[in-house]
């Protein structure tokens, strides 16, 4: 497998990358696009008339996202780290949006747009022409062509991945649904790639699901998704409420649609669908014995092969359960309860939904249940726009409806850690950022929680069907915005930490004077701490959205061949650290509030961090790539306990892990293959700014005495900075479920700024040549 040419046409706003697509592809006028940000709800709009363009001028941030060149001036060249940090901040602060947050494209996964486009197609509610044009452009730009991943013409699971059936069949279908001709040379190439991989029949479960409801495949090819699992009593170890929220929220509408065996009404008469039936397979469509291909999958897609147990369960479901035992009354009950849960999800998020996989599926469920004119369908259709983002390569679907809270909380922390937060010229920036966080904190629990039998105040992690098994949220923050409405452990922690940092910041000349007003009152900070206290697992660690509710053995039922570790919540050093370090800070501010519980939380959590370290000194990261990311967090946890290079063998081992892998140019670069394989894999393009910054932060937190090595890394960060203070986009930064990568373009600003400032605080701000 090749990993060549990362960073080229990688889907980010870099002015210098060379797109691989034919330049004469139709495109819209980039100067007519505007990002609207309505209290963190972000949507892109294409202005039709010159008058509109005059009324709504393009911003620096718009231009940056669109790769148009910001026109920001060159700054005096930085000689010292803090100056470089400040140049970085000068650039980055210009990208802050009116409500106070930062935004960015949040692309990477290549399986999201297809679900949206298929849903809009079968419901007869297409996107506007400019949106369609830009989506086509994006998908072609992400195609593996030229020297990108062997140039075989396919698409992978994510923008940097090798071609596989899931990406290729679904993106090919999407382009066709958007009107692209099958005779376009790139489409021919894509088909050749698809046939080499065995055709769409070799696709994973999710591909078969989408193509069946579109009417290109037949439902017999889809392994069962029985909604009756939702009727299991809560104590049953495999009951869906115990699964990771993303799995159960996808399984929910998927099961509803599967149960109805719903198919696009015009499938048999629509000429496009009839053509797709000929284009996606290596054999004539009419001859396909669908049921025989339920388990067919190409090796390129089969990252996580189905277990023997799941194969057995599927076999029994198909041969015994469905034909003989799945009585109509049971089906009806299962569908009714699923529908209720779908409605609860929609109600809790005003139809935004958890993520862009379940969102279009829920829209289709509403369409099936309530018809095309229903409010639910119309609202869903509007909400789809929250996921769409226009970048320089075209229009993509983001992994969530944005990264608002997360990047904003980190931006504040970077300003604090560098000491730049005390400078008057950044006060407005900081205040606006905290005002944004204030606006986005959840102030109410999920619908039904307060009337449920598990209600308590302060809340616990107990859940119930009465409120759709949702985790408590009063006082929490989500990853993106308030509309989406899901508590995330580390998002709550990082936002709370950022708020406390700002609200306790004192004047360097007069430490009795705080610099900022109280934006979020004490009571609400305490609610946030209450939420964090509900997030701990028995192991001491924290997970992402909820504490772990089911056994890891549920992984035996993981039906989505393309992802690993998806069935339940796991222990993560990143989330654990965020909670530990924030509770530590909170406890210093309010030493009497739930002090014993906080102490116990921190002790057991840090103990877990210690035991989670690998023999070679590293920690495996699940949300950023990979060991460089997790190591930064784990060492921060240890530092809160005073555990550093000087007094801890463990910390020394962690530092050696990094120093042994430092590149000759002083930086670090780790490939996404680390996430897939669980072993350190060097980045094919060498050092990466973001990962170098992560390691600098880690080593400074660990109080590594190896100043020379760290200074070399700092030098690399400074050399890669552009004269206007910017850093350019390099390889992809984030990951989920081990196999799918996702972009965090603001990391290239946030973490270098923070690393430069932290280095200077630790070692002094001497000139670096
Ligand atoms: C995210 C993005 C943020 C991320 C962090 C906060 C960084 C992490 O520390 C905790 C987990 C979380 C919230 C997270 C979980 C999974 C998400 C939502 C994503 C990686 C973004 C996209 C992904 C989601 C699962 C994509 C849809 C795909 C499915 C398989 C349903």
From TrEMBL:
Residues 1-32 are annotated as: Disordered. Keywords: Isomerase, Lipid biosynthesis, Lipid metabolism, Repeat, Steroid biosynthesis. InterPro entries: SQ_cyclase_C (IPR032696), SQ_cyclase_N (IPR032697), Squalene_cyclase (IPR018333), Terpene_synthase_CS (IPR002365), Terpenoid_cyclase/PrenylTrfase (IPR008930). Residues 1-17 have a biased composition (Polar residues). GO terms for molecular function: lanosterol synthase activity. Residues 22-32 have a biased composition (Basic and acidic residues). GO terms for cellular component: lipid droplet. Residues 406-760 form the Squalene cyclase C-terminal domain. Its EC number is 5.4.99.-. Residues 92-292 form the Squalene cyclase N-terminal domain. SUPFAM superfamilies: Terpenoid cyclases/Protein prenyltransferases. GO terms for biological process: ergosterol biosynthetic process; triterpenoid biosynthetic process. Belongs to the terpene cyclase/mutase family. This is Terpene cyclase/mutase family member. It comes from Friedmanniomyces endolithicus.
């Amino acid at each position: 497998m090749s990993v060549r040419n990362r960073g080229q046409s990688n889907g980010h706003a870099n002015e210098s990358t060379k797109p691989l697509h034919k330049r004469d592809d139709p495109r819209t006028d980039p100067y007519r696009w505007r990002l609207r940000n309505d209290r963190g709800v972000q949507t892109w709009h294409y202005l039709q008339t010159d008058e509109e363009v005059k009324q709504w001028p393009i911003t620096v941030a718009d231009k940056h996202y669109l790769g148009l060149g910001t026109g920001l001036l060159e700054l005096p060249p930085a000689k010292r780290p803090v100056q470089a940090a400040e140049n970085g901040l000068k650039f980055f602060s210009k990208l802050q949006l009116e409500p106070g947050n930062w935004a960015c494209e949040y692309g990477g996964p290549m399986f999201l747009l297809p679900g949206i486009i298929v849903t809009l197609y079968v419901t007869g509610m297409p996107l506007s022409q400019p949106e369609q044009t830009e989506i086509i452009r994006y998908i072609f730009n992400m195609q593996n062509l030229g020297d990108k991943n062997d140039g075989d013409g396919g698409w992978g699971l994510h923008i940097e991945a090798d071609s596989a059936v899931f990406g290729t069949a679904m993106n090919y279908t999407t382009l066709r649904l958007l009107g692209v001709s099958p005779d376009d040379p790139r489409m021919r190439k894509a088909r050749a790639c698809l046939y080499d991989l065995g055709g769409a029949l070799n696709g994973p479960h999710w591909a078969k699901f989408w193509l069946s409801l579109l009417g290109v495949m037949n439902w017999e090819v889809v392994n069962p998704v029985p909604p009756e699992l939702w009727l299991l009593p809560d104590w049953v170890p495999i009951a869906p409420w115990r699964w990771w929220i993303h799995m159960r929220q996808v399984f929910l509408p998927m099961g509803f649609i599967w149960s109805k065996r719903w198919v696009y009404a015009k499938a048999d008469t629509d000429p496009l669908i009839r053509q797709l039936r000929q284009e996606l397979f290596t054999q004539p469509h009419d001859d396909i014995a669908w049921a025989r291909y339920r388990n067919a999958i190409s090796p390129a897609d089969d990252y996580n092969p189905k277990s023997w147990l799941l194969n057995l369960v599927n076999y029994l479901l198909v041969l015994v359960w469905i034909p003989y035992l799945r009585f109509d009354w049971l089906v009806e009950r299962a569908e009714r309860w699923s529908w209720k849960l779908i409605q609860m999800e929609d109600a809790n998020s005003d139809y935004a939904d958890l993520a862009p996989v379940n969102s279009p599926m829920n829209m289709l469920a509403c369409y099936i249940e309530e018809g095309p004119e229903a409010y639910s369908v119309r609202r869903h259709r509007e909400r789809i726009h929250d996921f769409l983002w226009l970048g320089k390569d075209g229009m993509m679907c983001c992994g969530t409806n944005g990264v608002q809270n997360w990047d904003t909380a980190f931006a504040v922390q970077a300003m604090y850690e560098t000491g730049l937060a005390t400078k008057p010229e950044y006060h407005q920036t900081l205040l606006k950022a905290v005002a944004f966080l204030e606006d986005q904190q959840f102030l109410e629990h999920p619908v039904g929680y307060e009337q449920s039998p598990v209600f308590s105040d302060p809340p616990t992690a107990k859940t119930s069907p009465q409120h759709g098994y949702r985790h408590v949220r009063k006082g929490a923050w989500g990853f993106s915005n308030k509309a989406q409405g899901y508590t995330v452990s580390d998002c709550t922690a990082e936002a709370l930490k950022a708020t406390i940092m700002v609200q306790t910041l004192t004047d360097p000349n007069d430490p009795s004077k705080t610099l900022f007003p109280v934006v979020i009152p004490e009571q609400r900070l305490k609610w946030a701490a209450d939420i964090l206290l509900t997030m701990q697992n028995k192991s001491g660690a924290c997970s992402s959205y909820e504490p772990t509710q089911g056994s890891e053995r549920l992984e035996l039922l993981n039906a989505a061949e393309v992802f690993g570790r998806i069935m339940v919540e796991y222990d993560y050093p990143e989330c654990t650290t965020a909670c530990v370090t924030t509770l530590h800070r909170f406890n210093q501010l309010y030493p009497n509030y739930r002090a014993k519980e906080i102490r116990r939380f921190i002790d057991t959590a840090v103990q877990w961090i210690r035991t989670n370290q690998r023999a070679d000194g590293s920690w495996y990261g699940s949300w950023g790539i990979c060991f460089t990311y997790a190591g930064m967090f784990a060492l921060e946890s240890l530092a809160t306990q005073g555990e550093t290079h000087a007094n801890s063998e463990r910390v020394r081992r962690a530092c050696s892990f990094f120093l042994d892998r430092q590149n000759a140019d002083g930086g670090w670069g780790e490939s996404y293959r680390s996430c897939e394989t669980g072993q350190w894999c060097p980045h094919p393009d060498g050092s990466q700014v973001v990962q170098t910054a992560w390691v600098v932060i880690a080593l400074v937190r660990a109080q590594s005495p190896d100043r020379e090595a760290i200074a070399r890394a700092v030098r690399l960060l400074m050399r890669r900075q552009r004269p206007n203070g910017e850093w350019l986009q390099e390889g992809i930064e984030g990951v989920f479920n081990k196999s799918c990568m996702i972009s965090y373009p603001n990391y290239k600003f946030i973490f270098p700024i923070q690393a430069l400032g932290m280095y200077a605080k630790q070692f002094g701000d001497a000139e670096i040549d």
